[in-house]
Specification:
- With 592 residues, the protein is of the alpha+beta class.
- It has four domains: 5-91, Zinc finger, CHC2-typedomain (DNA Primase, Chain A, Alpha-Beta Complex), CATH 3.90.580.10; 100-237, DNA primase DNAg catalytic core, N-terminal domain, CATH 3.90.980; 362-432, no CATH class; 455-591, DNAb Helicase, Chain A (Orthogonal Bundle).
- The strands form four sheets. The chain has a five-stranded antiparallel sheet. A five-stranded mixed sheet has the order 13-12-14-15-16, sandwiched between helices. A four-stranded antiparallel sheet has the order 6-9-10-11, sandwiched between helices.
- Helix 5 (102-129) packs across helix 9 and helix 25 (538-563) packs antiparallel against helix 26.
Length: 592
């Protein structure tokens, strides 16, 4: 543990894991647990489980798991010190100055170095825009109507054609080749050597909510492809959990935020005075983006382009925002394509009218169904009302559903359908199970498949789960099993910590998981605490416990026999003792 245990435990005890995770994930209580859609992989059926009694979480879908600090670290892409500081601030715990462990110090140093590289690169690009070579980029920005002040505010810059000038600049600043490789700002090629990734482009520095430069976007000057290029993901940049312009927009006094498609849309909006505009970073809206928005607002206006691609983007975004608990409305930009074009042609006042006249997201989806349908034919009308009923089924609140039924009938009275008839169709669709899922989610930095749990490791996980669920059995277990009998190193460490806790009091799963700095190891340990125990009566439970201990000891005996020295008397004695324990347990099993 890189920090004093008393500080870590005070921060842990003053931050309830359900309260913290509920800021990011919509959780529903299920008995002793809370469940929700996992924020770390794409799923439609909740497999993410939070256990308040143990203050830990585990996803049965992707394997993510750990304590409160691990959740913040993974979700916010933060180091342990940053997660600890964030949670301490949330709980009002004053943090003393602490020493990092070598591992934590290394990770923090790597992040600090990347942030410093990005800061220097942003300065370099900004300077180049003012040089003769950057005139093309400067003229482009001015031609798009941007003032010198807004160019300065967003730190816009320019990268010249080809070469390795930025690389040489940063090497001169003292950064080594490996640090620059990790930044994602360069291409390393055996044939061509090192050269700058961004060249002949206007540069848009990307900042996090704390105004630190974490990456870059570049718009090419000319017709080369790709038109826009973004930094790759690094230890400080995750495009699925950052929004362009949020460092400014988070300070808005408006009751809503405006979600645009790209950098220029956001900048044009800010220049026009709409400083509550943000954009996703070259990717569709993700649950991570939605959760981030929820921290700063309850309502989002979708301001996507008015073309077909923009409509599809809005239709994808609406359920993601809804699932995160964020209400959304859709702004109609027609006859203009994007907000920049709208403001330049129609003016700020007219644009503001469009914002406040934006369309309810549900009625927007209904209108899209109407535009797709052949409403001139009875068959087309029938299909349209089928689509309406399916959408109505996505609404879980009965009153809300009734209100939208009335709104649909009022909007489309020419087809002679009554609210009672539409309500009946909704009920029929529900009975047939034809309702659409409201949980359409875009992949958000999809995790790889979880490490497959080996079948022969299950007894070790089961024994840990037994002990964590019922501390009264510890007196029996310790007569036969020692932590060293756990063959898998992760479970051996977890068992040693668990045994130590049970010697003096009740188990604390969250504290045990906190002892694992490696994420994969922490997830394995978390999975052990979630190993499912079947419903059993007292006798069945005792037999299952003895059987589990026999299997753990048998695995230990096998491993010890394979690695031990046959001529070592002490080793042989331990093998004999272990065999005797197994025999004694078998006798108990037969007796019961």
């Amino acid at each position: 543990m890189p920090y004093q245990n008393d500080i870590v435990e005070e921060v842990r005890s003053r931050n309830d894991i359900v309260d913290v995770i509920s800021q990011y994930v919509k959780l529903t209580r299920k008995g002793a647990y809370y469940v929700g859609l996992c924020p770390f992989h794409n799923e439609k059926t909740p497999s993410f489980t939070v256990t308040p009694a143990r203050q830990i979480y585990h996803c049965f879908g992707c394997g993510a798991g750990g304590d409160i600090f691990r959740f913040v670290m993974d979700y916010e892409n933060a180091s342990f010190p940053e997660a600890l500081e964030q949670l301490a601030k949330r709980a009002g715990v004053e943090m003393p100055k602490m020493q990092y462990s070598p591992g934590a110090q290394k990770k923090a140093k790597e992040r600090e170095t990347l942030l410093e590289i990005n800061k220097e690169a942003a300065t370099y690009y900004y300077y180049q825009l003012r040089q003769e070579a950057g005139k093309k980029g400067y003229d482009y920005l001015r031609g798009r109507g941007l003032s010198d002040q807004v160019i300065k505010s967003f730190g816009l810059g320019y990268s010249d054609k080809g070469g390795d000038s930025l690389y040489r600049f940063l090497r001169a600043k003292g950064f080594n080749s490996e640090e620059l490789r990790q930044s994602g700002l360069f291409n390393f090629d055996e044939k061509h050597g090192v050269y700058d990734k961004f060249w002949n482009r206007v540069i848009f520095p990307i900042m996090d909510v704390n105004s630190r430069v974490i990456g870059f976007g570049g718009r090419v000057m000319g017709d080369a492809k790709p038109k826009y290029l973004n930094s790759p993901e690094t230890k400080v940049f995750d495009k699925s959990r950052n929004l362009y312009g949020l460092q400014v927009a988070k300070r808005t006094k408006k009751e809503f935020m405006i979600l645009c498609e790209g950098y220029m849309d956001v900048i044009a909006m800010h220049q026009a005075g709409f400083t509550n505009a943000v954009a996703s970073l070259g990717t569709a809206l993700t649950p991570g983006h939605a959760a981030l928005l929820k921290r700063y607002t309850k309502e989002v206006l979708l301001l996507y382009d008015s073309d077909e691609a923009g409509v599809k983007a809005a239709l994808r975004a609406i359920p993601i925002l809804t699932q995160a608990g964020v209400f959304s409305r859709v702004v109609n930009l027609k006859p203009y394509k994007d907000p920049d074009e709208f403001i330049r042609n129609a003016g700020k006042e007219e644009f503001e009218k469009r914002l406040y006249g934006s369309e309810d997201n549900f009625l927007f989806r209904i209108r899209q169904e109407a535009e797709k349908a052949d409403l001139g034919s009875p068959q087309g009308q029938n299909r349209f009302f089928d689509a309406c009923s399916e959408l109505l089924l996505t609404l879980s609140d009965e009153l809300e559903r009734s209100l939208y039924i009335e709104a649909i009938i009022k909007e489309y009275p020419q087809y002679g359908v009554t609210s009672e008839e539409l309500a009946r169709r909704v009920r029929n669709a529900a009975m047939k199970g034809t309702g659409r899922s409201a949980e359409i989610r875009e992949p958000q930095k999809d995790r790889t498949k979880p490490k497959q749990q080996k079948a022969d490791e299950k007894p070790q996980r089961l024994l840990i789960s037994f002990l964590a669920s019922d501390e009264s059995i510890y007196a029996t277990v310790k007569k036969y099993v020692d932590p060293q009998d756990f063959v898998e190193p992760v479970y051996r460490k977890a068992a040693a910590l668990l045994f130590g806790q049970l010697e003096s009091g009740p188990p604390n799963a969250a504290r045990i998981l906190g002892e694992f700095e490696d994420r994969d190891e922490q997830e394995m340990a978390a999975a052990a605490f979630y190993e499912e125990l079947p419903a059993m009566n007292t006798d069945e439970k005792q037999r299952a416990l003895y059987d589990t201990m026999i299997k753990v000891l048998s695995q230990s005996l096998k491993a010890q026999s394979a690695s031990g020295d046959p001529n070592d008397v002490t080793s042989l004695q331990k093998l004999i003792e272990k065999k005797q324990k197994i025999e004694n347990l078998r006798k108990h099993t037969i007796k019961n």
